[in-house]
Write a structure and sequence with these properties.
single chain; seven-stranded mixed beta sheet; 217 residues; 7 strands; LmbE-like_dom_sf; GlcNAc_PI_deacetylase-related; PIG-L domain-containing protein; 39% helix; globular; hydrolase activity, acting on carbon-nitrogen (but not peptide) bonds, in linear amides; alpha/beta
Length: 217
């Protein structure tokens, strides 16, 4: 695994902004990386923002974020109520919130959606991330879906078996409203982790993958 945050030590404060269009996106896309960061950095602070939800899903999202972030030094969890599938049509309001977010939190690392994701909500969040945060390390995570839009990532975070199991179990436990979907299974999540683990020669066999457009060392 490449060390994220090159000038940080385990005792330094490390600030991470997690952005997801929908209530389970962050967990599916980068939940293992979140858990590994918490293990590696004692003084880690998270700002976790979900943009689309309804009342039932918002409750799931908050419960899930609290599971993933329970060992973090500090966390802020925000769940917005923009309509699922319609984010581009709320573009002005979403952009205004990004500008507010930039004033509230200055991250060392941002985890957001992949810009080539075929879901319109995901693409908007990715575009506005880059449009708003111009001097930050940004990693774009991937979401498996029916559209078949998985690409060729260039940044891998190797995770061990215990984190792999925790990530999947937390997702399945938190998002009960999604269990009727044929893709929302342990096999789906573990399969992608295994493929990315193979591609990155992970000793544990598992990894999460990201797209890093720009990195300055």
């Amino acid at each position: 695994m490449m060390q994220i945050g090159f000038n940080k030590t385990n005792e330094s404060e490390y600030r991470v902004l997690c952005l997801g269009a929908h209530c389970d996106d962050i967990e599916i896309g980068c939940g293992g990386t979140v858990l590994k960061l918490i293990e590696n950095y004692k003084n880690i602070i998270f700002y976790w923002v979900v943009f689309s939800s309804n009342q039932e899903r918002a409750q799931e999202a908050i419960a899930s974020a609290n599971l993933f972030l329970k060992e973090a030094k500090a966390k802020t969890v925000i769940v917005k109520d923009f309509r699922d599938g319609f984010l581009p049509f709320y573009g002005i309001e979403v952009k205004e919130y990004f500008e507010q977010l930039k004033q509230e939190f200055s991250p060392d690392l941002i985890l957001t959606h992949y810009r080539q994701d075929l879901h319109q909500d995901h693409r908007l969040i990715s575009d506005l991330t880059w449009n708003t945060f111009r001097n930050h390390l940004i990693l774009e995570y991937e979401i498996p879906k029916y559209d078949g839009d998985l690409g060729i990532p260039n940044f891998f975070v190797q995770i061990d078996e215990s984190i792999c199991r925790r990530k999947i179990q937390y997702i399945l436990d938190a998002f009960k409203t999604q269990t009727n979907k044929q893709w929302f299974t342990e096999e789906t999540f573990r399969s992608l982790l295994r493929i990315r683990g193979m591609e990155s020669n992970s000793p544990s066999k598992y990894a999460e993958a990201f797209y890093c457009r720009k990195i300055v060392f």
